[in-house]
Amino acid sequence: MANKVYTFKIAGPAGLGIKSIGQLFSKILIAHGFNLADYSEYPSLVRGGHNTYQISFSLDKVFAPHYQINAFFAINPGHWQQHQSEFNSKTLIFSDEENPESGRMEKGIFYNLPLKTLANEIGSPLVVNTISLGVAVYLLGFDLNLTKEIVCGFYQKFSDLNSRAIQAGYDYAQTNFPKCKLDLKTKINPKTDQQLYEGNESYGWGFLAGGGNFYAAYPMTPATGALHFLAAKQEAFPNIKVIHAEDEVGVANMGAGAAFAGARAAVGTSGGGFALMNEAVSYCGVAEIGLVYYLVSRPGPATGLPTWTAQGDLMHAIYSGHGEFPKVVMAPGDIDESFEMGYQSLNLAAKLQTPIIVVSDKFLGESSASTNNLSKIKVKIETGDIETKPSQNYARYKFTPNGISPLTIPGTPNGQFLANSYEHDELGFSTEDAQVSQKMFDKRMAKNKLAIKLAPKANLFGNNTAKTLIISWGSTKGPILEALKDLPNKDDFAFLQIKTLWPINPDIKNIINGFSNTVVIENNGTGQLVTLLKSQFDFNPTKIHLRNDGRPFFPEEIIKLLK
Can you spell out the DSSP letters for 319-355? Predict the structure, then answer.
């Protein structure tokens, strides 16, 4: 029998540590043996507004956060009303309000939690979030000393203050909310090797594991987390250089120069910044420079919804850069795949000598989940076809059957060449000759066959004799898998996760043809995966479910759609 999934949510204005206390609660859950997936929402504000952090946890694997809430904590009054659709009749709602307007109370059980009074007694209005954590720890029957150890380890300069805040919340709940206690009686495992990682952080660990030694970015939500993470690792990994450039044009060209010089290089941005990088993408295509682009999508057009999520940049990535040249576009579906594609993209860039684009989004990049300790994972680093002793007539762009020409690192004796942005001959000299141009184009495009062989393959979950095949990509993987856990007729469904979106592997058509019904689920408004698959082969899905309001799919929503 499957273990129950619980979801706790905390809400309040920016500046009161909503996300930090949520992440601490996640670490406390992990120390008590739970698996989890979380999700945060916040407006583009430094102070004020309405920020939330929700965590779904269970003793079983949790693939995605749930929509329905078991316990809700409002740090400031008035932060619970807009979430009533997430409540049920048993949802516990804690807020610093003695007399909430009962007429606006649609669902749930309301409890007054005098956070301001308790915080003033402790001596700081800033510990209201930590007091809420103390209440949550009591409700779940968690170990109080272990909780204090984790929290005080994070707030080292204010350990005494936060220790008293946790105790105050715990004591208040013990006195006033004894009937709310869940007491899950979990097996404490404080020495677990499970860790909490955001998607951007996970990608960064994969980049480091893959020998990445140059990363450039201009801060742009929601990709900035990878820049901050890697910048903080420069002391522990002295071989890596991280640069915060003046803009995305500078970022892309720095990355191209670093990759040309032999670095295992990547650049990071979101959709608007990637638009500025497109000329460099095209240049890397013709000059055959293996550079990784980490594209963490948010809703557009233009500035759009800068702190929300969408899968609207798929076609933008596939058709990035003017002209025709090979590139690989792939998308991780969860925290572990973000790590994997962090190093896989570097290996592909080295072997294929062409742009590699990793497409994530806000939902995956800025959400966290529990998984194995990524810092301990060792991976194979592949360097590609490096020519260390070229002949005197070295041809950098030599015509080869698979399109891969031997590459020299600058400074190699006899290995000098031109990395020309013009069409060129085998030596790199500009040419407008028709035959040479056609032959060079064909040489580059031949890399697509090798790319299909080397790039991550699609995942098929479930029974291949099921009635209906769900097809999707990227961050929708988690909500779909979580939904399939709870579907009463789950054996009627299989799920195809397409990990490499370009070039499309022809095996995908064979998989799809094995099912009578197909349902496509995408977090965009135009069905970009559907358009892509239709461009490659005859494809007519039975149903298409799209969402494009800045929010991700939740498992409960997908269950309703599939029913």
Answer: T-SSS----EEE---SHHHHHHHHHHHHHHHHHH-S-
Six token digits for residue 418: 């031109």
Instruction: Name the one residue in this structure whose structure tokens are 């939740």.
Output: 554
Secondary structure class of 44 (helix, strand, coil): coil
270-317: pLDDT as tens digits:
999 999 999 999 999 999 999 999 999 999 999 999 999 999 999 999
Phi and psi angles of residue 546, each rounded to the nearest 5 degrees, phi first:
-120, 155
Which pLDDT does position 159 carry in this prediction?
A: 87
| Arithmetic mean of pLDDT, 44-55 | 89
123 alpha carbon, distance to own chain's centre: 38
Biggest CA–CA distance in the chain, Å, is 86
Residues 6+ apart with CB under 8 A from 73: 8, 9, 10, 11, 94, 95, 113, 132, 135, 136
Over its C-alpha atoms, the chain yields an Rg (Å, rounded) of 26
Q: Report whether pLDDT(501) > 60.
A: yes
Is residue 113 predicted with pLDDT exceeding 90?
yes
- DSSP for 164-221? HHHHHHHHHHHHH-GGG---------TT---EEEEHHHHHHHHHHHTT--EEEE---T
From residue 545, give the alpha-carbon distance in Å to each of 431, 491, 499, 553, 560: 48, 20, 19, 10, 11
pTM (whole model) above 0.85? yes
pLDDT at 144 over 60: yes
Q: Can you list the domains of the chain with their CATH numbers?
A: 6-192 (3.40.920.10), 196-376 (3.40.50.970), 385-455 (no CATH), 457-562 (3.40.50.920)
Res 103: pLDDT: 47
Cβ proximity of 213 and 239 under 8 Å: yes
Residue 189, pLDDT > 80, answer no
- Whether 111 and 177 have beta carbons less than 8 Å apart is answered as yes
Q: What are residue 519's DSSP bridge partners?
A: 470, 543
DSSP state of 127: G
Cβ density class 47-71: b for 16+ within 10 Å, e for less: eeebbbbbbbbbbebbbbbbbebbb
Instruction: Return the number of other C-beta atoms located less than 10 Å from residue 468's C-beta.
Output: 18
In tens, the pLDDT along 392-405 reads 889 999 999 999 99
Which contacts (CB < 8 Å, 24+ apart) does range 392-397 have?
395/426, 395/427, 396/426, 396/427, 396/428, 397/288, 397/424, 397/425, 397/426, 397/427, 397/428, 397/440, 397/443
Question: Cβ contacts of residue 191 below 8 Å, gap of 6+?
Answer: none
Q: Is it the case that residue 425 has pLDDT exceeding 70?
A: yes
d(CA 132, CA 413): 65
Residue listed under structure tokens 């706790």 = 8
Using DSSP's 3-state secondary structure scheme, residue 489 falls into coil
Residue 15: predicted pLDDT: 85
Answer positive or negative: Cα dihedral of 435, 438, 442, 444: positive
